[in-house]
Amino acid sequence: MTPALLPEIASARAHELIDRFASRRITVVGDVMLDRFLIGRVSRMSPEAPVPVVVFDHEEFRLGGAANVAHNLRALGAAVDLIGVIGADESGTQLKNELAAKGLHASGLVTDPERRTTTKMRVVTNRNQQVSRIDYESDHEVGPVIENAIASQVESRARSAQVVLVSDYQKGVVTRRSMAHLVAFGQSNGVPVIVDPKVPHIDYYAGAALVTPNHHEAESATNSRIVTHEDAQRAATVLRQRLGVASVLITWGEHGMWLNHGGVDGYLPASAREVSDVTGAGDTVIATLALAIAAGGTMPEAARLANEAACIVVAKFGASTVTPEELKQRF
């Protein structure tokens, strides 16, 4: 089968949508994380075990998970409300500091003293080679008290948003009950809810406007293989019908994307010229989709913008962001 390509977007129309980003507000709900990098040089192997000895030089902190989605949205010009859960710990304080440094406020974060702030600590050489990673996390689902606190933050913050974006990393914030509240809130207030999903929660998202699984997640959720365009089309159709969502966008790495949206069922080839690091590319995709929808773009237009944003970010090292000017240059 020769896949149907999604319609092109004219340069003037792309620029028009991107120019609207700065006047849009997005509420992000999900699992916030802190990425911590311990960076040093390697000159020898350890005599104790077959591992390199890393001589510490400096450390860096970056936003991860839903916090990185919020960072992507802010870099694209949007106003952002971030709702999530942190622990009463040093990492939680550091996460707040990193948010402030990126022009994001932390007043929507709920502190749960019984949980750790999700932190991924990586030991990295000064040549960007990762030696090891240590995860600090409490990934069990939050209880009713925290669910209610999250719901209160949504009720107070999301009414002025054009889109609610759910960033689910399966670290406990997105529960069946909290997701049902988000979908009901979106439907009663006319605000589309879009979801970057995790497979074990796939049935939580029923009624959302859009879900964006990668092809591995789509394979797992539909118990199928995605090798051909027909496979992608079939999986997107199955997911859309199973969940009762308006749209499904399957991201397919170097193969591009597949969108199933009402009468539109089509393919977008990837157009990356250089791939350096795919870390955080999914966060850039969902952020750009949300903003394009908030700016009044159609779903195919939003997919086009998100596809180009992904091509920009994979050429950068680490979880990076895209600016409106960079995105405009792609059109």
Helix content: 25-40%
CATH topology, by name, is UDP-N-acetylmuramoyl-L-alanine:D-glutamate ligase
Order of helices and strands: HEEEHEHEEEHEHEEHHEEEHHH
Mean pLDDT: 92
The total of beta strands comes to: 13
CATH architecture: 3-Layer(aba) Sandwich
Span of the ends, CA to CA: 28 Å
The fraction of residues in strands falls at 25-35%
CATH superfamily: Ribokinase
Q: In the CATH hierarchy, what is the class? A: Alpha Beta
Structural class: alpha/beta
Verbal overview:
- The protein has 331 residues and is of the alpha/beta class.
- It has one domain (11-33, 63-119, 139-329): Ribokinase (UDP-N-acetylmuramoyl-L-alanine:D-glutamate ligase), CATH 3.40.1190.
- Helix content is 36%, strand content 26%.
- It has ten helices and 13 strands.
- The protein has helices spanning 11-20, 66-75, 90-101, 144-157, 176-189, 215-222, 229-243, 281-294, 299-313, 324-329; strands at residues 25-30, 32-45, 52-65, 79-86, 109-111, 119-125, 130-136, 163-167, 193-196, 210-211, 247-251, 257-261, 264-268.
- The strands form two sheets. A nine-stranded mixed sheet has the order 5-4-1-8-9-10-11-12-13, with helices on both faces. Strands 3-2-6-7 form a four-stranded mixed sheet.
- Helix 5 links the parallel strand 8 and strand 9.
- Helix 4 runs parallel beside helix 5 (176-189) and helix 6 packs across helix 7 (229-243).
- The mean pLDDT is 92.
